[in-house]
């Protein structure tokens, strides 16, 4: 479901930095719509995971990709989600020093 025509605060809803995912309840449970734009430039990817761009570049294990040679490198939202999920899993087995070492 794409919402290209609605505006929020003079920004298009499909802007990945301003869009709030729609969460709806279905018979099977909750579903969430992902941002329309799957590949994000570094600054947007850093904002997506809640990190300053300088730190993001140092700690993010996801590697940016180029769809064509003329493109700027972009980060796949799915890779960023996988990274966040892996950090959440690792927190149960990592020591405080391990976590600080990632920063």
What can you see in these coordinates?
The protein is an alpha+beta fold and 103 residues long. The chain has two domains: 1-37, no CATH class; 38-103. Helix content is 35%, strand content 16%. The protein has a two-stranded antiparallel ribbon. Strand 1 (7-8) and strand 2 (11-12) form a beta hairpin. Helix 1 crosses helix 2 (53-59). The chain is flat, with a radius of gyration of 16 Å. Mean pLDDT is 76; it is low at 1-14.
Q: What is the SS-derived class?
A: alpha+beta
Number of helices: 4
Distance between the termini: 37 Å
CA-atom Rg in angstroms:
16 Å
Sheet with the most strands: spatial strand order: 1-2
Major sheet size, sense and barrel closure: 2 strands, antiparallel
Order of helices and strands: EEEEEHHEHH
Number of domains: 2
Low-confidence blocks of residues? 1-14
Helical proportion, percent range = 25-40%
Mean pLDDT comes to 76
Shape summary: flat
Percentage of residues in DSSP E strands? 15-25%
Number of strands: 6
List the helices and strands and how they pair.
Layout: E1 7-8, E2 11-12, E3 23-26, E4 29-32, E5 39-40, H1 42-49, H2 53-59, E6 75-76, H3 77-90, H4 96-102
Antiparallel strand pairs: 1-2, 3-4, 5-6
Tags for this model:
alpha+beta; 16% strand; 4 helices; 103 residues; two-stranded antiparallel sheet; 2 domains; disordered N terminus
